[in-house]
Amino acid sequence: MPDIEVPVLIVGGSLVGLSSALLLARQGIRTLTVEHHRGTAIHPRAAQMNPRTLEVLRSVGLDQVALRKSEEQFVQEGAVMAVEALAGKELAWYVPNINEGTREVSPCPRVFLTQNLLEPLLKSRAQELGAELRFGTDMLSFEQDADSVSAVIRDRDSGTAATVRARYMIAADGSHSRCAIPCKSPCSAAACSRAA
User: Fold this and answer.
1) Taking 70 as the threshold, does the pLDDT of residue 192 lie above it?
2) How far apart are alpha carbons 123 and 12 in whole angstroms?
3) What is the spatial distance between Cα 124 and Cα 131, in angstroms, rounded to a whole number?
4) Model pTM?
5) Whole-angstrom Cα distance, residue 85 to residue 108?
6) Alpha carbon of 191 to those of 178, 188, 195: distances in Å?
7) What is the C-alpha separation between 44 and 11, in angstroms, rounded?
């Protein structure tokens, strides 16, 4: 008998995992998200959001707070260009204004907002809608049968392990995931023929 039963287990609690938890919770689907790190991103990493991303945030009531946060971080309507150095000569302009042409096709602009500010917004809203998020938790292994997935998870601080049974599992733990499929040589999990 599993310790936890949930319709969807999400492995990875960064942008993809948090977005999945949020969007499923919005539809009334219970999820459990496990994430190795003890919190959301601490480094800026990804910084540009396309109009479609902001449209999705709009659908869950986060567009206005995302716009406010982006304005706190960056001067919006920026350009993409090449320079010799930060204070050096301009070499080429690739995009003179990041929103050129977007206003005609979307009610949402393209904005700059770094991952370390966006992830807490996703996390908070997902929890408000009922998603369960466990940071500092690893998935150790999983097995799939015809009906569901059984996974073993472990809290990194207490060492307590639990078995989760879910109808579906979303792998959102990124390109540095430790592949759970035994192989004889290093491989890319995304390109692994054994993962099919």
Assistant:
1) no
2) 12
3) 10
4) 0.82
5) 32
6) 14, 5, 8
7) 22
